[in-house]
Amino acid sequence: MIRPADRNDETAIARLVAELASRATTEDLRTRFIRVLEHPEHRVWVFERAGSVAGFVHAFIRPALEKPLEVVVQSIVTDGTVRKEGIGRKLMEEVERWAADSGYTSVALHTRNAAAFYRRLGYDEIAAPSFMRKVLR
Ligand SMILES: CC(C)(COP(=O)(O)OP(=O)(O)OC[C@H]1O[C@@H](n2cnc3c(N)ncnc32)[C@H](O)[C@@H]1OP(=O)(O)O)[C@@H](O)C(=O)NCCC(=O)NCCS
Predict the structure, then answer these.
(1) pLDDT digits over 17-73, tens only?
(2) Which of 6, 38, 55, 137 could join 47 in a cystine, given CB atoms 3.0 to 4.6 angstroms apart?
(3) What is the Å distance from ligand 1's center to 88 Cα?
(4) Is residue 34 a part of any domain in this protein?
(5) Cα(14)–Cα(12) distance, integer angstroms
(6) Domain for residue 128, yes or no?
(7) pTM for this prediction
(8) Is 114 a domain residue?
(9) Which residues form the pocket of ligand 1, taking CB atoms under 6 Å from any ligand atom?
(10) Which atom of ligand 1 is nearest to the CA of 16?
(11) Interior/surface letters 65-98, b for 16+ CB within 10 angstroms, e for the rest
């Protein structure tokens, strides 16, 4: 079953996020999770099975000056023990439903390791940009 995440999902989502970013502390995650949940243009859905959360997806509406508004998938993780069972696909379909129902015509994302998964779902590679960052201290 897919449902919107709520504050009670923090521990389960922290466990899944740790698979992506092992350096995040629990405290960091709590602050970010609440901020995302409260943001009107962000959504987090979880996939729940037998009372336990087996995956989540976080998406948001990205405003841009040079192109129309678009839905962006920020992160998606399914539990390592239940991959390739269709959960990731169901979560992405939820995002696409939300985007279409909200009047957006595309969903975009950056990926490093999961291009094959997104290709199976009909996503095309449109660019290979460098993702750059400067750490400010
Ligand atoms: C990427 C991820 C979310 C996919 O979740 P999943 O639950 O395994 O995905 P699904 O079972 O719904 O897969 C959908 C399709 O993609 C295929 N697929 C999934 N992962 C794949 C992979 N790594 N390589 C090739 N194909 C893959 C599945 O076989 C399935 O194919 P089908 O169309 O024949 O049924 C999951 O592997 C994951 O959490 N990875 C670690 C985190 C990550 O990299 N997230 C993405 C970047 S934020």
Answers:
(1) 998 876 667 778 899 999 999 999 999 999 999 999 999 999 999 999 999 999 999
(2) 55
(3) 6
(4) yes
(5) 5
(6) no
(7) 0.95
(8) yes
(9) 19-20, 75-78, 83-89, 111, 113-114, 116-117, 120
(10) 39
(11) eeeebbbbbebbbbbeeeeeeebbebbbebbbeb
